[in-house]
Specification:
Blueprint: H1 4-24, H2 28-49, H3 56-71, H4 78-92
């Protein structure tokens, strides 16, 4: 079992780092996974413990994060820019 103080530090790190990575589009699929897991835990674990707890916003977040995980961040991302740059450098490399 994870110590509560360690869990608090890990969740804080995920909450601070992953949104920045998503905004930049850097390792976006990897950053969306822990956020999706956190939204699932909040909605279904907390929701199971308290039947009055029902937030539709978590379903929207889960849908949007699921799209990023499955489809990727898109063309306006650092991931896309870096992939294009690496492909260009590969074409310029002499054989």
């Amino acid at each position: 079992m994870l110590a509560p103080w360690l869990a608090a530090y890990l969740v804080t790190a995920v909450d601070l780092v992953c949104p920045v990575l998503l905004v930049l589009g850097l390792a976006a699929r990897l950053a969306a996974l822990p956020m999706l897991a956190m939204a699932l835990v909040i909605q279904f674990v907390v929701g199971a413990a308290d039947p009055a707890f029902h937030l539709t916003e978590h379903y929207y977040w889960m849908f949007l994060l699921g799209v990023i995980v499955t489809k990727g961040p898109g063309r306006l991302s650092l991931d896309h820019l870096l992939a294009r740059r690496l492909a260009h450098l590969e074409r310029l490399k002499p054989d």
